[in-house]
Amino acid sequence: MPDPNPLRWLTRQRVPTSELKFHDLAAETRWLLWFCIAYVGAAFATGFAIAHVPLPILGATDFLQDFWYTVVFKISLLLLLPIWVFRRRGYRARDLAYGWRLAPRSAAVIAVCFGIGIFINAGRFGELRTAWAAHAPAEAAARVALGVAIAFLQAGFPEEIVYRGLLQTRLEKSWGRPAAILVSVALFVAWHLPTRFLLAHGTGVPVGIVGLIFAIVWDRNRNLPALIAIHGGIDSIPIVASMLQSTAIGHR
Fold first, then answer.
1. What is each CA distance from 153 to 103, 171, 232, in whole angstroms?
2. Helix %, strand %, coil % for the chain, to 5?
3. Phi-psi sector, 102: left (phi>0), alpha (psi -120 to 50), beta
4. What does pTM read for this prediction?
């Protein structure tokens, strides 16, 4: 029997809204909205701190690898604080999986997503070779490893957990899918702007495009490990370049 709705694949979700379960949806949504709004203010404070009291990690050349940005603004505020709040509310890591399980196929998807993220910035490989040659091999390898770790701890994990895994799903349950995507992306772009304006004179357009793609993928597939992998891959090359003290930095 033919499907009466041949365009059903456009609205397909691996886990539909009706299956999303929360402990206290209204309170959690309010907390996340206020947190994400306050995080924009924290971005201004972080940009001010970097501009006046810079603390680059191992002499990194990009302000995104400054102690204030990486350790305080991203790891402490955007990763550890929300995890602490939601663990106190009774949530665990499996609550963001929505049935996802680690298996050979899912592990392969993660590896491919990380590779795609790396490939997006493949044009900078020549820059990395030049920067690598400026250090002893052991030191260069350590800087590369630290750069990849920072890419996940600074970007992949906190941004995907908070803006997709926590915020967007709760907005979707409360306001519907289109509103959840648009509001979560708007808040995702908003916190990027202060530091770019103060330190890099960049725009939020690339961030908005990436954020919208990630939001749509999360809306349909609920595959947080895959999003973390591709996000970490995208950020790895620029961050590794910064940690190798390359001066050819391009801000997002």
1. 23, 25, 9
2. 75, 0, 20
3. beta
4. 0.92
- What's the pLDDT score for residue 200? 64
Nearest of 124, 114, 105, 115 to residue 155 by alpha carbon: 114
Taking the C-alpha atoms of residue 75 and residue 58, their distance in angstroms, rounded to an integer, is 17
DSSP state of 56: B
Residues for the chain: how many in total?
252
Q: Which two tokens stand for residue 116?
A: 């795609």
Rg (the chain; Cα; Å): 19
Flag residues of the chain having pLDDT under 50. none
DSSP secondary structure string for all residues of 74-122 = IIIIIIIHHHHHHHHTT--GGGGTTT----HHHHHHHHHHHHHHHHHTG
Cα–Cα dist 250/246, whole Å: 11
Residue 31 main-chain phi, psi, to 5 deg? -60, -45
Domain locations in the chain as residue ranges: 40-243
66: helix, coil or strand?
Answer: strand
Q: At 209, which amino acid appears?
A: I
- Residue 7 DSSP class: T
What pLDDT is recorded for position 3? 56
pLDDT score for 214: 97
